[in-house]
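User: Hello! I'm new to structural biology and keep hearing that structure can be predicted from sequence alone. Could you demonstrate with Solute-binding protein family 3/N-terminal domain-containing protein? Please show me the input and the output so I can see what each looks like.

Assistant: Of course. The first part below is the input, the amino acid sequence of Solute-binding protein family 3/N-terminal domain-containing protein. The second part is the output, the predicted structure written as tokens.
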Amino acid sequence: MRYIYPIILMIIFLFPQAAKCNDNTINWYHADFAPGIINEKGHFWDKGYHNILERHIKASLPEYKHVYRTANFRRILRQIQISNACSIALLKTASREKYVEFSNPTMVGMMNGIHILKKRINEFKPFIDDDGFISIDALFNKSKLKMGISNGRRYGSAIDKIITGHPDSDNIVIQYKGEVFARLIKVLQIEHGIDYVIGYPQEMKWLIFRGIVKDNFTFIPIKEEPRYVLSYVGCTKNKWGKKIISKINKVLKGTYYEPYKASYQNFLPHEAVKLHNKYVREVFP
């Protein structure tokens, strides 16, 4: 170990441009979370709604070399901790704020809700309030309708409480492998053992866009969950990261970049767009 530091110093002395290049490079890390980030090669590659915001930021910061990298969420957070790195869309938590420099809010995202077949809406109406929100507690505890979920996924406190509190319930159907949400929706579509699926509204539209399922579904927000979640650009919490985030804040000027919002809403079901606009006005008056 004692020989490593002299070597590093020698490299910096002999190749000072290498250190400078690192400061002038932004490594953008992306988890595969379509339709927000689309890493899959093909027609939709790099056309997710988060990709649109990233392209805008890159074009506004031409003085930097921008490098596109892919990783899972765990590795992304690790890279931000140990090196100069950024991610276009992160949720802010107290633990992350210790090592992530966050921008001002960039996006208003809808929370998880339930996806059902449109033709079966009457079965769910007893649990829907006048504002169009469904009580997940009443739906689960006062009906025999079966919930479809993905193994190991976290949905939100109210939903997770039901799942963890009823591990052996016949009214919870768990999908374990493959493109899990798509598999659940396919089972829902043929009405064979699942009555509703928990997920984000944009997940369904993504399946419809790709022709995996037909547009026979509707989305209902959940009463017990927060109305929306905010997304932020996040970079390494150091002098370099603070400089990058400061520039990004100046680029966005405290607004919800309109093409970004429009792209996100393009992936929302019709019934969710009006609600999303309401939340946007609350955050970006």
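User: So the tokens describe the shape?

Assistant: Right, they're a compact way of writing down the 3D structure. Reading them back into a model, for example: Residues 207 and 213 are 6 Å apart (CA to CA).
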